[in-house]
Amino acid sequence: MILRLIAFLVLLLPGIATGQERVVNVYNWSDYIDPYAVQRFTRETGIRVRYDVYDSLETLEGKLSAGRSGYDIIVPTSEPSFARLLRAGALAPLDRARIPNWRHLDPTLMARVAEIDPSNRHGAIYLWGTVGLGLRLDRIRAIAPDLALDSLDTLFKPENAARLARCGIMVMDSATDVLPSVLRWAGRDPNAHGLDDLRAAEQALMGIRRHVRAIIPSSAILDALANGEACVALTYSGDVIQAQARAKEAGRGVEIGYVAPRQGAQLWFDMLAIPADAPNKEAAHDFINFLLRPDVMAGITNHVRYPNAVPGSLSAVDVAVREDRNVYPDEAMLASSFIASTPPRDIERARSRSWSRFKAGR
């Protein structure tokens, strides 16, 4: 009887019986998942999740470039990080047979990232969104009631920045996600990689630098908007919408809004990918398959206010979220959007130096 009981426990709890616990090591953006989804995955599969976070693509790439990061799942943005890691051979091909929920992905959105990942062999879209302006509307109405708020003019015209500076202007600390929007505002190709274009972008940024209170990670901007410490912020759409929800819950009269600029917003996709040297690839596939379930993705979108690429999830997404054009852009907004491409290495280095000058203010 005792031997039969032991055998039964071995079948149910292989990790405990053999001393080899199943684990998946996840490296994702901060504030970017429904915590309940992580708990649910462990409860349903028995796989424990070790979850670390980063707040910039530069941090992610630095960790991966050293090799042997120990992570099984990473969430790089399609351009430039996912594209660079792919070219460097740092990503493992996905075994679609282990991801039956792949069928739920939107083929139109997946086709957009297939331009850098032919046949979508190395990544699935997790969440996506735009880069635009987070605005504290109650303060702006008091300071500059005549100011139009549908454009990047709000931030990049020095006279506007000067009017709004006293209530706090912030820019996220990411050349990757800021410079293309500056180029589009300046009437240039956001994917132009010439030195003249870089100088034009730097000139525009330096024109407002003395009015910028902080250049900080997007997660810190989220907190600043929610607390009413920022009046204008260039950052990710979902972070602004999260800040809007937090401010409303706090009930202190802080009114936050998001603007996807009429000049055309930068569109980005964050990808579920497996590093080539991931120690637990089977568990990684299980985690991706779990996340692509419509009910799981709906819960994630409801929690973080970013759109996902699983259309079957929409019926379970809160009505206020799925009907918000700042969360799910309409066709006209998508048509005017652009995806930033990865510049050559020499321009990348020049861009880093330009960004450092902007941060230093000289």
Quick synopsis:
With 362 residues, the chain is of the alpha/beta class. The protein contains 18 helices and nine strands.
Note down, in words, how this protein is organized.
This protein is an alpha/beta fold. The protein has two domains: 22-128 and 269-327, Periplasmic binding protein-like II (D-Maltodextrin-Binding Protein, domain 2), CATH 3.40.190.10; 129-267 and 339-360, Periplasmic binding protein-like II (D-Maltodextrin-Binding Protein, domain 2), CATH 3.40.190. Helix content is 46%, strand content 14%. It contains 18 helices and nine strands. Strands 4, 5, 6, 7, 8 and 9 form a six-stranded mixed β-sheet that branches. Strands 2-1-3 form a three-stranded parallel β-sheet. The chain is globular and about 60 Å long. It starts with a helix and ends with a helix.
